[in-house]
Amino acid sequence: MLIKKSRYTKLATSLMCTALLFGCSNNSSESDTANNSVATVNAESLSTIGDKNIADVISGIVTYDKDDLYTDWKSDDTTSIQLTGTGATVEDSGGAMVDGNIITIKTSGTYVISGKLNDGQIIVDAEDKATVRLVLNGAEINSAANSPIYVKKAEKTVISLEDGTENSISDGETYNLEGSDDEPNAAVFSKGNLTINGTGKLVVKGNYNNGITSKDDLKVTGGTIEIEAADDGLMGRDLLAVKDGDFTIKAGGDAVKSTNDKDASKGVIAIEGGAFDLVAANDGFQAVTSLLIVDGDFKISTGGGSPETVGTKEGGGQRPGQTTITTTAAAAESESDSAKGLKAGTEVGIGGGTFEIDSLDDAVHSNNSVTITGGKMAIATGDDGIHGDSAVFANGGDITISKSYEGIESLVITIAAGDIEVNASDDGINVGGGVDGSNPDMQSTTSENNLLSINGGNVYVNAQGDGLDSNGSISMTDGNVIVSGPTNNGNGSLDYDQTLDISGGLLIAAGSSGMVQAASEDSKQHSVLMTYPETQAAGTILHLEDSKGNTVATFAPEKDYQAVFISSPKLEKDGTYTLYSDGKATGSEADGFYKDGDYSGGTKVVEFTIADSVTWLNESGITTAQSGGPGGGGRGGQAPMDGGNRGDMLSNLDEETRTKVQEIMEKERAGTITREDAQAQLAELGVEFGGRP
What end-to-end distance do the CA atoms of the chain give, in Å? Predict the structure, then answer.
């Protein structure tokens, strides 16, 4: 049964509802935050959603007052605290008290701290409701058994880093805490709102647990901050917001983190600028709800970085959950196992910035949705490059995934703009998903709601598994897509279960022929699929031109190939075209595609006239696709089995066995038998396939 094209508009707007980026209503309880149930975005089109400026979203949830921004403290009424090694002297105010090696600040005001405290604490326990400002003016504070700076009670605390000074805070590996609560648990620990500003330097060593922690909002508007922490580096509970600053963090847990999982409007990380050099055993950024970034420079390494070689699935085309995955980045099922670059429970929104992410686990991950509208990203990962449990939306940016298991994965993926390059040891772009460590319920399932929608942009996919893979449908209205697909017959450069509808744009997909698919027959834009009798060597140019000698496409696939699919606005009904092989091409080349220049010296392979939406070709001329199934061509436009394609994986079977094999394959695709049952029945016939039936 064909799916009507009119439903694509509905599917295109069925992105995951997110409280901040898309402003959808949320009637769920606070405890439902982690469930991330699917809702429909009330928008006319994805372009409307894409116009949502992430910077505007941040400005709606983060405000900076005058206390957050650094000002010259010298004109203030200040209190001087001079650390003396074993204690301190306090001048000019009675707001601070010294008891041995413990300095307690009891009222609001500005306190200028300098000198060294070998083993002691500065405790803020203010009785009034105003801001306490600690100016670190060349201070070194160490505590062997507690938090060196502990904000126990204050309306708001500001730590200002004086220009030209270096300040250090360090704690011991064990704390002497009264009661059962593990508080404080960081070298700099605040129970209330905490802001760090200034232009000086702060070095923090959190040997016990965390580096800097606020149990409320944590804001940073400036300063050079170096953190080495046994567990998490920089942590805010309700909000962690950065306007500017230079951060170097080495963490045994997460580098930057928010923790409030009780309120769906909190647990946010919002980054407007700064430079981040993060090395974390677990996640680089980890937000309970939203991770929003509009600018900054980010260098992130997690879990020791991506493996030198990312493994592939056993057996060619099996999906995760159907066979053992040999990738070295195992599924992360708990927080301690997670080693992701950018991670959020509800949404990741990236509007700008430069990113260099080298992660063992997913580079960009959301348990809900990922939205990218700008920025430049260089990604190497042992798992998914970009993963959203429910939706991924790209409306700009420059994204290069140099290494991944699967490049981009979600239930709904929409590409509206941007430049995207994907290199994957398995599927390049995968709709329908597979088992992912953060959401074990995300199985590889076929649904009419699963959709890969390409409405613009430039996309290059180099995949050892399926190139474009949808356990649902694929829709393309504009853009340029080049797929260098698999060389094994257990995968296909195009792989879909419902329909592939093309009404605009350029799509070229080259790869193996065993599981090859073309577009659906009711596509508005014409296309051709050429199957060669023998494998063509990588780099062998194929050139398609019309009867007047005008170029439709000139392409040199990066890998060996036996089938090539081309859909272009230049292909017209009743037009006559000629396909050439080999030869030479001039002009600008990117990803094997020649945009300009001339072609010469090739060998004519076949000449044909387009009569239908999809034209199936071999060296003898036009052939026919196998009838039946989605797209009118077997399994969604699968390769013909009429003997014209000698590379077909069933061509060596007798007619009776072939019929039985096809019946088993159709039952598995229809869901009436499991894949394991299908494989068992095929084995009884003496037939084995590396890919899925």
Answer: 20
Rounded-to-integer distance, Cα 460 and Cα 433, Å: 20
Phi, psi of 274 (to 5 degrees): 110, 170
Does residue 341 contact residue 304 with C-beta atoms inside 8 Å? no
The total domain count for the chain is 4
The DSSP element (H or E) to which 661 belongs, if any, is helix 655-670
pLDDT digits (tens, 9 = 90+) for 499-518: 999 999 999 999 999 899 99
In a 10 Å sphere around its CB, with 0-12 CB exposed, 13-18 middle and 19+ buried, how is residue 160 labelled? Answer: buried
Give strand pairing partners of 566: 508, 528
- Residue 94 burial (C-beta neighbours within 10 Å; 0-12, 13-18, 19+): exposed
Same-domain pairing of 684 and 636: no
- Identify which of 19, 22, 16 has the alpha carbon closest to the alpha carbon of residue 43: 22
**355 within a domain of the structure (yes/no):** no
Q: Nearest Cα to 319, choosing from 461, 446, 476, 152? A: 446
Whole-model pTM: value is 0.85
- Which run of H or of E encompasses 364? strand 364-366
Structure-token pair, residue 322:
């159907």
Q: Per the domain annotation, does 339 fall within a domain?
A: no
Positions in the chain whose pLDDT score sits under 70: 1-52, 93, 179-180, 312-336, 433-446, 626-652, 666, 668-671, 674-676, 688-693
* Domain-located, residue 29: yes
Residue (of 82, 84, 83, 79) closest to 95 by Cα position: 79
Per-residue pLDDT tens for 212-229? 999 999 999 999 999 999
Q: Report the run of H or E that residue 233 belongs to, with start and end.
A: none
Percent above pLDDT 70 for the chain: 81
Which of 471, 613, 446 minimizes the C-alpha distance to 529? 613
Helices 655-670 and 675-684 meet at what angle, rounded to 10?
A: 170
Where does a domain end: 214, 242, 270? Answer: 242
Neighbours of 686 (CB within 10 A): 8
Separation of CA 231 from chain center: 24
Residue reference for tokens 């605390």: 157
Structural domain of 687: 653-693
